[in-house]
From TrEMBL:
<protein>
    <recommendedName>
        <fullName>Probable sugar-binding periplasmic protein</fullName>
    </recommendedName>
</protein>
<dbReference type="InterPro" id="IPR006059">
    <property type="entry name" value="SBP"/>
</dbReference>
<keyword id="KW-0813">Transport</keyword>
<feature type="signal peptide">
    <location>
        <begin position="1"/>
        <end position="23"/>
    </location>
</feature>
<comment type="similarity">
    <text>Belongs to the bacterial solute-binding protein 1 family.</text>
</comment>
<comment type="function">
    <text>Part of a binding-protein-dependent transport system for a sugar.</text>
</comment>
<dbReference type="InterPro" id="IPR050490">
    <property type="entry name" value="Bact_solute-bd_prot1"/>
</dbReference>
<dbReference type="Pfam" id="PF01547">
    <property type="entry name" value="SBP_bac_1"/>
</dbReference>
<keyword id="KW-0732">Signal</keyword>
């Protein structure tokens, strides 16, 4: 299937998924002239506190401050992998009508709750004034558009389905290269456990198990069947899903026992420190691996680590996009607009993404800046033969309620190890998703 045809079908799904949300019109509410014109500072809320991502934010902040010397930049980042802690803090602030000037969110269904609650303003005029519709790929614009209005400014594209591995440990285990399928992966994990004293598959906090699940579902079901799971009325009770979940349960037997005590950085670091054979994590890990100390590890591709598509997912790009919004009632609205200009600019994205370990959302990036793994990601994202699959954990195709219910089902599974109950929980999560 050619990606162009898939993207058309995916756009239809996105529109259906957003049905019932509260439509907002125009380009922002009336927050008073003082708020609209206040550029004295900008409070930027994100969860970019870890290695690589913090460096990227710092680089973009420096460029912003150079372009806006009279505006104070307030970094309101909250630590916690994948934004789990930050989102809880943000929800409280928005409910209490104390929004930051701009906050990070994943492009796609994750923004629906903010739209329903009238907590973010459309950015149609901003896109028009800055000629952004021609700068972004159409399939990305489709994901951030609801009833003709755009609600966020993407800064990057990430890939979720990446297998990071230690070539020396695989050699010691007698594993000939990265596994291409889920059954091959399970065989490789078993070989590492039996023939070495290393950890077969490193995991971090619970959300990394959710991240692993989406990769196993994609690798077992294939792109078409995986994407179908997120359509209204999708059946999660099928034998194919049961098989995939059984494979997930088997893979979990080879993960670290101390999984709940560390975040993704520690789990990824285990691979380059020769303690673990495999880690399945998004390509933000690349920025962490190759970045300079103190925030990066200064490791070398092909020597200290290698990468491949997660087992069973070669030829498919499981994608997500970090983006920034304009909250209704932003106290420094002009400062927020200036920040969105930075986020959407070619200069800002080319400063940010090489450090973050992602590729730019804009189409006119400086390709020479994206080397090593990032060159491969850049080429595959722009290849019309590549299939696309949205990351449910990172906000593309699951709203916040569905996201939370999946996380709850996986949390119960981590305690019980009961695959049947996990499937029941996922069936219920889909039925109660609101689609």
């Amino acid at each position: 299937m050619r990606v162009r045809a898939f993207r058309r079908r995916w756009t239809v799904f996105a529109a259906v998924a957003m049905t019932g949300a509260l439509a907002l019109s125009g380009c922002g509410g009336d927050d008073g002239e003082g708020s609209k014109n206040d550029k004295s500072e900008v409070e930027v809320f994100s969860w970019w506190t870890g290695p690589g991502e913090a460096d990227g934010l710092k680089a973009m902040q420096a460029d912003f401050e150079k372009k806006n010397p009279g505006t104070k930049f307030v970094n309101a980042a909250i630590a916690g992998g994948s934004g789990t802690q930050a989102k809880a803090v943000l929800a409280s602030r928005l409910q209490n009508r104390k929004p930051p000037d701009s906050f990070q969110g994943h492009a796609g269904a994750e923004l629906l709750d903010y739209i329903k609650a009238g907590q973010i303003d459309p950015l149609d005029d901003f896109y028009q004034q800055n000629n952004l519709k021609s700068a972004y790929p159409q399939q990305l614009l489709d994901q951030i558009t609801y009833k003709g209005h755009i609600y966020s400014v993407p800064v990057n594209i990430h890939r979720s389905n990446v297998l990071w591995y230690n070539p020396d440990i695989l050699k010691d285990a007698g594993v000939d290269g990265p596994p291409k399928s889920i059954p091959e992966f399970i065989t490789a994990l078993k070989a590492v456990k039996e023939k070495t004293k290393k950890v077969p598959l490193s995991l971090g906090a619970q959300w990394t198990a959710d991240h692993l699940l989406e990769n196993v579902l994609l690798g077992s079901l294939g792109a078409d069947a995986y994407n179908a799971l997120w359509k209204p009325g999708a059946d999660w009770s099928t034998p194919a899903v049961a098989k995939a979940l059984g494979e997930f349960g088997e893979i979990m037997k080879y993960t670290t026992l101390e999984a709940a005590s560390t975040d993704w950085q520690g789990a990824a670091k285990a691979v380059v420190d020769d303690r673990a054979a495999f880690n399945i994590m998004g390509d933000w890990a690349y920025g962490y691996f190759v970045g300079d100390a103190p925030n990066g590890l200064g490791k070398k591709l092909d020597t200290d680590f290698k990468y491949a598509a997660a087992p069973g997912t070669e030829g498919t790009y499981m994608w997500l996009s970090d983006s920034f919004t304009l909250p209704k009632g932003a106290p420094h609205r002009a400062g927020a607009t200036a920040w969105l200009k930075e986020v959407s600019s070619k200069e800002g994205q080319d400063l940010f993404n090489p450090k973050k370990g992602s590729i730019p959302a804009r189409k006119d990036a400086d390709k020479s800046l994206y080397t090593g793994y990032l060159q491969t990601a850049f080429e595959e994202w722009n290849d019309p033969q590549t299939k696309l699959a949205g990351s449910f954990w990172h906000g593309v195709n699951a709203n916040n309620k569905w996201h939370t219910d999946i996380d709850t089902a996986i949390g119960l599974f981590l305690q019980s190890k009961d695959v049947g109950k996990l499937q029941q929980g996922l069936v219920s999560a889909a039925k109660n998703s609101g689609l």
